[in-house]
Amino acid sequence: MNFRQLIVPLLVLVLGCTNDEVDQADKPTPFTLNQTLVDGQNSGFNYVGLGSQPVISLRFSTKLDAATLQASIRLEDAEGSPVAVTSNLTGGDSTVLISPTNPLPQLSAYTLNVDRSLLSRAGGSLQVPVQLSLKTAVDLADKFPRISDEALLELVQKQTFKYFWDFGHPVSGLARERNSSGDVVTTGGSGFGIMTIPVAVERKFITRSQALERMQRIVGFLKDQAATFHGAFPHWLNGNTGKVIAFSTKDDGADLVETSFLIQGLLTARQYFAEDNPAEAQLREDINHIWHAVEWDWFQKGGESVLYWHWSPQYQWEMNHPIAGWNESLITYVLAAASPTHPIGADAYHQGWARNGAMANGKYYYDVLLPLGEGNGGPLFFAHYSFLGLNPKGLKDRYADYFEQNTNHTRINRAYCLANPGGYAGYSGNSWGLTASDIPNGYTASSPNNDRGVIAPTAAIASMPYMPQASMQALRYYYYVLGDKLWGEYGFHDAFSIHELWFADSYLAIDQGPIIIMIENQRTGLLWKLFMSAPEVTDGLHRLDITSNPY
Length: 551
What we know:
Immunoglobulin-like, 2 domains
C-alpha cells in the first residue's frame, strides 16, 4: 500500500466527524467535590467547636493540579481578612488537606472558599465552588497568669474604675453613657460612678485630694449648669453645656428614677467626704443643695398615691409611666420618703409602689421561692441598682425580706442559665447572668422571659453579695478563659454571645458601676455603710415601715 492509499481513509475518517465532536473531545471534563471532613468529622458545610488548628480534608472526583491550590483556596475571618493556610495533596492527589498556618483564636468565625480556578491534572475546572463555615471553640487555657482571688477582685475594680476616671467627661466630670457617646452623659450612671470614688480612694487607686477635686467639678456642674425640672434631672445631659439630650421623643425632661440613682451616689459621697475642713464642708453643702431641690412629692401628679417616672416641659405627663414594683426603683421611693424638703407619704409606697401587695409573687422557679416580681425574676439589675447603697441585709417590710428576694432572684437567674431551655451555646455554671446590656445590633433587658443568648459580665459579678462563690467562679472564667476576647481598657466589655460568636466592644456606665460597687460591698460593705449612715435614709425607711440593720 502506497502513501496515497493510506492517507485517504484517514482523511475520510477525520472529515466525517462533526465540529462539535472535535470540540467535545478536546474539552477537559469538569469535576466535583465528593467529601468534606474537618478533624475527621463530617458536618456538611458548617463546623463549630473546632480547635485552634483544624485540619480540613476536601476529596474531589479526580486528581488535582497542585499548581492551582494556592490561588484557588482562601480562608477569611469574620471581617473578610485573609488568613494564611497551608495546603497539600494526598489520597492519590484527589484530596486536599488544608490547615491554618498559625493557631486560630478561640471563639472566632471563618469562611473557607475554594473557587473554580482549582483545576484537575487534565485541566478541568471545579464545577461548583466550595464554601465552608468554621467556628472555633472555647480554649480553656488561661489567657493571663493566675493570681489570688483577692488580687483579681482588686484588679477588676481598678481596671473598671478607669471608665469613670480616665473616660469621665472632661468638662462636667460626669460619666459618659457609653464609650462611644461623646458628650452624652448619663445621670443615673454618673450616680454609680460617684459611688466608685470612695472605693478608689480606699483602694489607693487615686488620692483623696484627687477625688475631692473630681467631686467638686461634678457637683458644681450639677448645681450650676445641669438642666433640672422641679429639681429632678433628665436621663441624659450634654456634658459640656448641661442641656437636656432627649432619651426618646417625649422623654426630654425629668427622669425621677435616674435622679434617684444620682442622689444615691451624691449622698454616699457626702457621707464619705466628712472631714472638718472648708473644702469638704462646701462639697457637703452643695450636695445638700441638689438633694433638697428635688420635688419628689410633685411627681405624684397632683396628689396621686404613686410616683411618676417622667415629666416633660413640652409633653407634660404624656409618658404616663407610674413607678410601680417590682423593678429597680425601690431606691426612688426610699429617697422620696427621706427628703427633708419634699417628702412623700407612706400611702404612695404601699398603694403605688407595692400596689397594695400585688407586686408579690410567691411562686417557685427551679425549686426557689421568689417573693416579688415577674415570673423567673426578671433582669438581674433589679437586684443591683437600688442596692448599691441600700443594704439588703436585714432590709424587710410587710412585702419581703430584700436579701432573700435578691438572693433567690439571683439563684433563679443562674438556674435558668444552667437549664438553658433556649439551647444557647456557652451557658454554664461558669458563664451565666441575664440583665440589661448590649446585644448584637441592639440593646435589651435580657431575662429568662427575654433570653437572646447574650451574657453580660455585670450580671454575675454584681451579684457577688448574693452568690459569692458562683459569682467568683464566673469572674474567674471571664478573665482567665475569655479574657482575650472580653477584657479590655475599662475592664470587661459589656456583653457576649458564645452562641453567635459575638463580643461587644462597648462599655456602659450603668453596667460598669455595679461591678466595682457590689464587689466592694461584698469585700467590706463600704458603700452600704456610707449610704445607710445618712440620717435622712433612716428617716425615710422608718416612714415607709421598712426595717434595716444600722451602721
